[in-house]
Amino acid sequence: MDTIRHHQQHLRRVFILGLPSRIASVWFGSGEVSTACSIGVFGNQLGVAVGFLLPPMLVPASDDKEALSYHIRVMFFGTAAIATALFVIVLLVFREEPPVAPSQAQAMRRQKRRSDYSYWQSIQRLLTNKAFVLLIITYGINTGSFYSVSTLLNPMFIHHYQGQEVNAGRVGLTIVVAGVLGSLLCGVWLDRTKKFKQTTFAVYCLSFTGMIIFTFTLNLGHLWVVFVTAGLLGFFMTGYIPLGFEFAAELTYPESEGTSSGLLNAAAQLFGLIFTVVQGQLTKHFSPLIGNIFICCSLLLGTMLTGLIKADLRRLKANLERGTAQLCSLDDGPERPLDGPVPGYVPVDQDSP
């Protein structure tokens, strides 16, 4: 039953983790989309942080199996009730998309919608996009490494700090909280600069650097060092998640962001499973140091592959070209109709004084 539960949770994550990119692109303009995506990732990470805090409070330690079973049922049924209520609210209140496209890229996508759209043909087109395939691999390596380190954090920490189970949980919480801040800052930075490849490559390098520092300082015997290095690791590794989503949306436009982010998450789950097994075996048979060195080598490979990705920013080009064309049409005369909003142009009510 425990195995089935874990598989169900991972299946859910593939769908949930892809939502921020899709929702952000449909509802927010080109100057807000990356920040909106990062806020979506922030919400997911906030849920993970709550997961570190609430279970020990809702399920207190007890030798009474009946009392323990009761508290676990209360926690699970409470979670199910909240999730069901949110599902009903989303179903009844939220619309699929706004009545007016928030960006030129979304307006063009709406105009090009076809009734014969095929999900599998979209998958085929994405998998023949060399830049996106490289991003799938590099995203899988980075996020899979994060999943592996997070999963094995407790045994790694206890190996060097015996009897410090409580602090092991606090280190995990530190990683999540730092990651929340990292994802928000990376999203805001993308909206300000539009430097997708440069930012992705820089954060990947910093993730690799953070993993090296964490690896070789874990056994120093100083708890504060572990908290600092774990925070740096979480800041950059989690900050990479919205960067990957947004970079994928740029490389694959006009394909659906939900499809591209779904492939990224599938790769992350696959690499996470493989890395967790390999790192776990290395940690068990050798030491946490050897297991972490394996993750460092993987991140080094991912960093080099990220440098090979061609920055073909299709969505950004669509927004810029469409906006330029419509501004030119304004200069040519008012008789030429516009078929989408112009950035910075605010319509005026003709009946107003």
UniProtKB/TrEMBL annotation:
UniProt keyword terms in alphabetical order: Cell membrane, Endoplasmic reticulum, Membrane, Mitochondrion, Transmembrane, Transmembrane helix, Transport
Residue ranges annotated for the Major facilitator superfamily (MFS) profile domain, each copy included: 1-314
**Can you supply a Gene Ontology BP term from the record?**
heme export
Reactions it catalyzes: ethanolamine(in) = ethanolamine(out); choline(out) = choline(in); heme b(in) = heme b(out)
Which parts of the sequence are annotated with region: Disordered?
331-353
A single GO molecular-function term is: heme transmembrane transporter activity
Q: How does it sit in the membrane?
A: Multi-pass membrane protein
Is Secreted a UniProt keyword of this protein?
A: no
Database matches in Pfam families = MFS_1
Q: In terms of one coarse class, where is the protein primarily found?
A: membrane
Q: Where in the cell is it found?
A: Cell membrane; Endoplasmic reticulum membrane; Mitochondrion membrane
Which PROSITE patterns does the record associate with it?
A: MFS
Residue stretches spanning the membrane: 33-54, 74-94, 131-149, 169-189, 201-218, 224-243, 263-283, 289-309
User: Looking at the UniProt record for this protein, which Gene Ontology cellular component terms does it annotate, in alphabetical order?
Assistant: endoplasmic reticulum membrane; mitochondrial membrane; plasma membrane
Family of the protein in this entry: Belongs to the major facilitator superfamily. Feline leukemia virus subgroup C receptor (TC 2.A.1.28.1) family.
Q: What's the protein called, per UniProt? A: Feline leukemia virus subgroup C receptor-related protein 2-like isoform X2
| Species this chain originates from | Petromyzon marinus
